[in-house]
Amino acid sequence: MTTEPSQPLPPPPDRRRLSEHPGWRRLLAAARRSLERGGGRLDGAVTLQSPTDDERVVVIGITGAHRSAGAARLSVRLTDVDEQLRAVHGVGLRELLASAAPLRNRAAEAKRDAVARDALLDLAADGRHATAGWYAEWLDGMRRDGTLTRVVRAGLPFGDVLRVLDALPAPDEPIPVFADRVLDDTKALSEGPCAAWCSGPSPPGSWCRCRPAASPSARCGNPSDSSPTTSPARCWSSTSRPTAARSAGG
């Protein structure tokens, strides 16, 4: 009686292409999210919902335990993934992921953002209009909708925001003259980071209502005028998300 020779096992996929492999793609993406949330620790686990056959084969290879083809989800420990990668590919999980893109430490980033936001709010608390209701509402709105975080991450000159507001009102002063006096740049309120803040409404209840400073002849408004006026505060008092900040952080 003769026996047919067993079929050789296929070679493992190239580790440089594991992130594109149908059995590894979602697993490595989930592992990255877990590591970035946990500061790079391997003591967690990841779960794949509605796993494919390719993913099931990979998980079986990692854990050494059979998984039913009808399983609705598959969980695997990061330490097991790390050990499998080292045994087969000679590289650990963190090193493999970092070779494609640096691993972020989201917990540390969140802490840094919180410290930086608090520093901006402390700076704003010393502003000329700190006791005004509209000013507090403006700051609270930016804190709640994430604008302050985007300002921090984009490195926008929030100090200039406060310098402009502190210099107002400045009735009938041409905006380029005002910008040069306050920010040492005649175009500071029409170009660059400031211009990115010019697309939204002013703080409710403030006298910062105005039209965009579109021409050199535009002048700073009179705070006692209840009609819409042109004021450089418009560029720095928007409660909407500034374009520059929005493009910086998503």
Structural summary, described in words:
The chain has helices spanning about 25-35, 55-65, 80-90, 95-100, 105-125, 135-145, 145-155, 160-165, 175-185, 235, 245-250; strands at about 45-50, 75. By secondary structure, it is mainly alpha-helical. It has a two-stranded antiparallel sheet. Helix 5 (about 105-125) crosses helix 7 and helix 7 packs across helix 11. The chain starts with about 25 loop residues before the first helix and ends with a helix. Mean pLDDT is about 80; it is low at about 1-5, about 200-220 and about 220-250.
Question: What's this entry about, in short?
Answer:
With 250 residues, the protein is mainly α.
In round numbers, the mean pLDDT is 78
Helix fraction, binned, reads 40-55%
Secondary-structure content class: mainly alpha
Low-pLDDT stretches are: 1-7, 198-219, 221-250
Question: What gross morphology would you assign?
Answer: elongated
The H-and-E topology, N to C, reads as: HEHEHHHHHHHHH
Largest sheet data: 2 strands, antiparallel
* Strand count: 2
SS element count, helices: 11
Calculate the terminal CA-CA distance, rounded to whole Å.
68 Å
Rounded to an integer, what's the Rg over CA atoms? 28 Å
Strand residue percentage? under 5%
**Lateral strand order in the biggest sheet:** 1-2
